[in-house]
Amino acid sequence: MFHIFCPYCQEYREEEEFHPSGQAHIERPAEPASVSDEAWGDYLFLRDNPRGIHHEMWVHRLGCRKFFNITRDTASYEILETYRMGEQPSITAASAEVRREQGVQTADGGWQTVGARPENSRLNEETPS
Amino acid sequence: MQRYSGFSLVKHALSHHENWQRHWRNPTPKKRYDVIIVGGGGHGLATAYYLAKEFGVTNVAVVEKGWLGGGNTARNTTIVRSNYLWDEAAQLYNHSLDLWKGLSQDLNYNVMFSQRGVLNLAHTLQDMRDVQRRVNANRLNGIDSEVVTPEQIKEIEPALDTSKRARYPIMGASWQKSAGVARHDAVAWGFARGADALGVDLLQNTEVTGFKIRDGQIHGVHTNRGDIEAQTVGCVAAGNSGVLAKMAGIKLPLESHPLQALVSEPLKPILNTVTMSNHVHGYVSQSDKGDLVIGAGIDGYLGYGQRGSYPTIEHTLQAIVEMFPMFSRVRMNRQWGGIVDTCPDACPILSKTQVKGLYFNCGWGTGGFKATPGSGHVFAASLAKGEMHPIAAPFSIDRFHTGALIDEHGAAGVAH
After folding, report:
1. Given B3, B293, B313, B395, which residue has the most CB atoms within 10 angstroms?
2. Any idea what the CATH number is for the domain that residue B259 is in?
3. Closest CB to B243 among A20, A45, A51
4. Selection from A88, A101, A86, A27 nearest residue A55 by Cα
5. Is residue B386 part of a domain?
């Protein structure tokens, strides 16, 4: 089960309070009437679906009911960071190597990197393993 | 290939069953094939089998990164039915159901296809309307669907709680008598054995690492065992289709999700049929071995990990206990996850791509097992002729741009 840090509640909560809502950072075309069928179809249906680092929207359905973003590895299921709507991820597929340096090793030998962003670094100190 | 028969059973009994032939060879890859199939699951193996058998293309390789039938073919809940709402989908799945009926004889391999029927329950007035609409559509397409009342359901499946006491009382159901279950592994093994006997090379532990594309035409694949050339490549990689498409520079409208299933300890025969409920959201059947085979919805997030999360298991079992209160103390034996490639309209993609000679057969999402022979047959026809088979044509990837979607979400509903 995921243990997700809600960037609005500033708390770790269990997965069941949340609901995944698909790929993050998809922009609706500014003028839908003027885009081509291809562009509109791509906007509606095409998704990155990577095996690896993925930025996705979640909603804290049974909590603050706000949408926020998670950067997660879709192969290991490791949550790398959570951040508010309108913000940009600090970890991307390109910077995947960086996360090892920013994370801390947990008791069971894995890497805890939820608090990888500098302002969340205090979270590393109270790492659940 | 040694044929299986009562006679061969007796003959091999004399040598203590120690001299049975291997199911398939383990060949080294040739430099060049006429057709390469990427993905050695049920659909890929069926494609190779029908290519060789019906369309005379025997110089075929099936490239599989793991072992044959080790992905979703080994992980599904083995339900076979064809009661889909829209004409295009009904034709595809019914074509498959027709092939299922003679499959054991055709393959000379017992796939244990058992037409024990499928109930799709309705718990609300809207459910009932949907059931009636779907049954009417089915009958127009020649599918043996009918609407049944709670009393009839009680007769078909006595273990089911059809009382008014239930939290979601059952108002009726659709009933497809010709639907049923099959032995999933045997399907992969049967197709593999049949294809191998016809000269198809089954290359296991061979992972595709890239495509050779020149001037918009496919020329082969790069693998961890060297390059293999072919002018026609069919990708049938289920959950990993998106990863393959990316190698070819193609984007697909797919999302890969974990779908979980579980089986209980073996019980004496208790279930007669397959029971599915969209509303309570779960489905259950009993295998010939006696296990209850249980499944429900996908985990909502993207994942390639072939495992799911615990809340989903809990929801699944809540649904099963709601339908069958007597199962509340049955212990579960095993639980697992497979990666399903879901399409926005819950229908598969069988399509050419912008790369000439490169075809995709993917997006079967939660319900691909039932289509294994039909999908293989129409995809093989398309690969052999270079033109999409009429049954496959509506499932082109273009539909996400033209808007001609085949929206089976409401009809298919629950994952299966």
Report:
1. B395
2. 3.30.9.10
3. A51
4. A88
5. yes
B contact test, residue of A45, A59, A69, A72 with most B CBs within 10 A: A45
Q: How far is A88 from chain B (nearest CA, A)?
A: 20
Task: Return the residue of B nearest to A39 by Cα.
Answer: B401
In a domain, B121, yes or no: yes
**CATH number, domain containing residue A59:** 3.30.2270.10
- What pLDDT digit, counting tens, does each position of B196-237 carry? 999 999 999 999 999 999 999 999 999 999 999 999 999 999
Q: Which residues of B touch A4 (CB under 8 A)?
A: none
List pLDDT tens digits, range A81-108: 999 999 999 988 877 554 444 444 444 4
Residue B193 to residue B1: CA distance in whole angstroms? 8
Angstrom distance (rounded) from CA B138 to CA B87: 8
CB B55 within 8 A of CB B381: yes
The domain boundary, picked from B284, B318, B342, lies at B342
Contact check, Cβ <8 Å, A1/B309: yes
| CA–CA gap between residue B55 and residue B52 (Å, rounded) | 6
Inter-chain residue contact B304 with A47, CB threshold 8 Å? no
Q: Which domain holds residue B354?
A: 31-78+184-254+345-412
- The token pair at B346 is 């819950």
Measured between beta carbons, the chain B residues lying within 8 angstroms of A56 are: 301-302
B411 in reach of chain A (CB within 8 A): no
Q: Which of A47, A54, A76 sits opposite B253 (nearest CB)?
A: A47
- Are B244 and B350 contained in the same domain? yes
Cα of B344 to nearest chain A Cα, Å: 7
3-state SS, one letter per residue, for B241-286: HHHHHHHCCCCCCCEEEEEEEEEECCCCCCCCCEEEECCCCEEEEE
Interchain CB contact of B311 with A (< 8 Å): yes
Interchain CB distance below 8 Å, A44 and B301:
no
Say if residue B201 is in the same domain as residue B263.
no
Structurally, chain B folds into a number of domains equal to 2
The domain boundary residue, chosen from B327, B342, B357: B342
Arithmetic mean of pLDDT, B252-273: 94
Q: What is the pTM of this model?
A: 0.90
